[in-house]
Specification:
Strand order of the largest sheet: 1-3-9-5-6
Number of strands: 10
Radius of gyration: 20 Å
Order of helices and strands: EEHHHEEEEEEEEH
């Protein structure tokens, strides 16, 4: 079982997938993403946002520890930047959002499969720290999908290593990236659909308010 902690007092458990599931069966992830994005978009004062941080000097974070290697993290947040840090503060990487729709940012952190390296090795405890030009209490994580499983291994024989990478590993890496791109496009479509629904709700509320005021 994964270990998950959050700097907020409450947090939903991230969804865990194997590599092949996030590529071939994205419908389940997208359905969960649509629901969570709808709930997050309704109010910035939901359970996560409304709670105060335990340490106001610390940026909001989600701490992850998984026995299996983490090969990709797909996240929707209103924070434009995310850092991966070890418990001792060692910075493993800083990532900027790959796409943005109406204040929601898409982050796709993928392992270096060509080198046979996971994004995060098994058993490593790390923190995802979020940064945005807004008060910390408004940081919101709408979706967080963590993909686990061993990435393709590099060949051991030097004689055919180049040929192996150019055929087998390259094909597997392309399949992974194609799947992630497909997921990104579908998530963006869902985000646009959620925003259209919210616009219709706002218009309806305006009509009701006008009727009340006209009486």
């Amino acid at each position: 079982m994964p270990s998950i902690k959050c700097s907020w007092l409450t947090t939903d458990t991230p969804t865990f997938y194997k590599e092949i599931q996030i590529i071939e069966e994205p419908a389940e992830a997208l359905q969960a993403a649509e629901v969570s994005m709808s709930l997050a978009a309704e109010s910035v004062y939901d359970a996560n946002n409304g709670d105060k941080l335990e340490n106001p000097e610390t940026a909001p974070f989600v701490e992850l520890e998984l026995n299996a290697a983490i090969t990709a993290i797909c996240m929707t947040s209103n924070a434009k930047s995310v850092e991966i840090q070890k418990p001792d503060g060692t910075l493993l990487g800083t990532f900027q959002a790959s796409a943005e729709v109406n204040g929601w940012y898409q982050h796709f952190l993928v392992s270096n499969a060509a080198a046979g390296e996971p994004l995060l090795p098994p058993g490593v405890r790390v923190s995802l720290k979020f940064f945005a030009r807004r008060p910390r209490e408004y940081i919101n994580i709408a979706t967080l999908c963590v993909v686990h499983g061993e990435p393709p291994k590099s060949p051991l024989m030097e004689t055919d290593a180049k040929e192996f990478r150019s055929h087998s590993t390259e094909a597997q890496l392309k399949k992974l990236y194609d799947g992630v791109n497909q997921l990104q496009n579908q998530l963006l479509k869902n985000m646009e659909m959620v925003n259209r629904r919210l616009d219709r709700v706002d218009a309806r509320l305006d009509q009701i308010e006008n009727r009340i005021n006209s009486k």
